[in-house]
From TrEMBL:
SUPFAM superfamilies: Chorismate lyase-like, Winged helix' DNA-binding domain. It comes from Methylobacterium oryzae CBMB20. Keywords: DNA-binding, Transcription, Transcription regulation. It comes from the Bacteria. This is Phosphonate metabolism transcriptional regulator PhnF. GO terms for biological process: negative regulation of DNA-templated transcription. SMART domains: HTH_GNTR, UTRA. InterPro entries: Bact_HTH_transcr_reg, Chorismate_lyase_/UTRA_dom_sf, CP_lyase_PhnF, Tscrpt_reg_HTH_GntR, UTRA, WH-like_DNA-bd_sf, WH_DNA-bd_sf. The gene is phnF. One of its GO terms (molecular function) is DNA binding. Pfam families: GntR, UTRA. The keyword Acyltransferase does not apply. The lineage of its organism: Bacteria, Pseudomonadati, Pseudomonadota, Alphaproteobacteria, Hyphomicrobiales.
Length: 247
């Protein structure tokens, strides 16, 4: 390491790497409130200048904080201190927009992709359809303020919800998209929850490190007549939500 790697506050030759010391210093500053939840950390170049290290060293320190769930790195925007976990009730009427708005944050859903696919065995059983029946598949990302809380695969029967993708893209809400399709109320029929590591594509959509744990919530919703209208597999960034199971 050359002279540029030396800086006040970084101790050399005692077995603790520069990136680890930077990570520890930023962790302490976050804990002390210098960088409150939701605030953007200084850019890599500014941190490199502050600690007199190269940007690779800073990048390794920030990666360690992201792996620990202390910050999130948003591609093209920077690194932000994680918000406190949002309490997310799961019950007969689970509504993402209402839950997020109730916590004083702005909710929005992004449509990543939509396509018509034949129902596989799992989707056919959940939606009470014949295997191979055409269904609408949506890939979405759901945000609180600008932080992605979850990403989901959603399946809906066709032709009943033929215009759902366009309605969702315009309104950013499953509930509002259902209303646009003439369905103004629905309830949760079943919920299953498990945990697993995120793959690289899921991690990218959620702004988390690959391999971080996600909570997988598989659910089925029904209309007031008891007809299945939605099967869903939602992946929550586990450090950003606290699932609350209620009646």
């Amino acid at each position: 390491m050359d002279a540029q790697e030396q800086a006040p506050g970084l101790v050399r030759g005692e077995g603790l790497t520069a990136w680890r010391q930077i990570a520890d210093a930023l962790t302490a500053e976050i804990a002390a409130g210098r960088y409150p939840p939701g605030q953007q950390l200084p850019a890599e170049a500014a941190l490199a200048a502050r600690f007199a290290v190269n940007r690779h060293t800073v990048r390794r320190a920030l990666a360690a904080l992201a792996e620990g769930g202390l910050v999130r790195a948003s591609q093209g925007r920077g690194t932000f201190v994680e918000e406190a976990p949002l309490a997310y009730p799961i019950g007969p009427r689970t509504r993402f927009s209402e839950i997020v708005a109730g916590a004083g944050r702005e909710a929005w859903g992004d449509l990543v992709a939509s396509t018509t696919v034949p129902a596989g065995p799992e989707q056919a059983a959940a939606l009470a359809l014949a295997p191979g029946a055409p269904i609408l598949e949506l890939l979405t990302v759901h945000r609180a303020d600008d932080a992605p809380l979850s990403t989901a695969l959603t399946w809906l029967p066709l032709p009943r919800f033929a215009g759902f993708a366009e309605a969702y893209a315009e309104r950013g809400s499953i509930t509002r998209a259902f209303a646009a399709c003439g369905l103004h109320d629905y309830t949760r029929l079943s919920t299953r929850i498990r945990a697993r590591p995120a793959d690289s594509a899921e991690a990218q959509r959620l702004d988390i490190a690959p391999g971080r744990v996600v909570l997988v919530v598989s659910s089925v919703n029904i209309d007031p007549a008891g007809v299945p209208i939605q099967a869903n597999r939602t992946l929550f960034a586990s450090d950003r939500v606290e699932l609350v199971i209620g009646g």
